[in-house]
Amino acid sequence: MPRSLHARRVSSDSQERGVKTRQNLIETAGRVFADKGYHATTSREICDLAGVNTAAVNYYFGGIRPLYEAAVSEARREVVIPPEAFAAILEHEEPLDQLKAYYGLMARRLLSPAERSWQIRLVTREMVMPTVSALIVDEDFLAPQVHWLRDLLARMLNRPQDHPDIGRAELALNAPFMVLATVERGVLEAIAPSLAEREREIEPMSRALETFALAGLQALARKCSSH
User: Fold this and answer.
1) Between the CA of residue 189 and those of 60, 180, 193, 212, what are the distances in Å?
2) pTM for this entry
3) Which positions fall inside the HTH tetR-type domain (predicted)?
4) What is the DSSP string of 131-182?
5) pLDDT tens, residue by residue, 12-48
6) Which residue, among 185, 178, 79, 80, has the nearest Cα to 128 in the 3D structure?
7) Alpha helix segments (H runs only) across the chain
């Protein structure tokens, strides 16, 4: 084999390994950051869990802060409801049925095992408790989803979007998601031991959250209609 061809192949293999290592670090760090937050996480911990040299974080990212920002950026792409899932929500004609579909989807995503839900938990944690990346996490990327939900609530409550009742309803609906996204799994399981069953508990718990949330919203809608 000509030396130049061999050198190109070695270089290509090295680049491919570098890309895989970089993505492995982002995935591993994302799960740790989602569970513990930025300030409680160390580069050594991430490298140990990723199975790489302890210098890998500095080599590939230049430090733990750029790695954190890379993980948040990666997570943002996963937080928005996928187009096909959003289209399925909009197939429902009644606002209440749309809201049921939305709430069930969000609850299932947050109740799924940690390795499949770190993205949404990390972004929610950063929005609720901003750290070093406050400037790169804003609501712009969620704007279409947020606008749709507020419009839906406005129609259900017969209120303009800027009415205080809309903000109250939105916060009440999203509060359980914030808890699921930011509270450590062990604490959640201490409160609701059934969560330790993971997969088996996803549907029952999501239905319970949906039942409480929608019942509260319907009660608010009745109160609004009487005034």
Assistant:
1) 36, 11, 5, 19
2) 0.66
3) 19-79
4) -TTTTT--SGGGHHHHHHHHHHHHHHHT--TTSHHHHHHHHHHHHHHHHHHH
5) 566 888 889 999 999 999 999 988 889 999 999 999 9
6) 178
7) 3-36, 43-50, 56-61, 64-79, 83-90, 95-111, 114-128, 143-157, 164-182, 185-191, 199-225
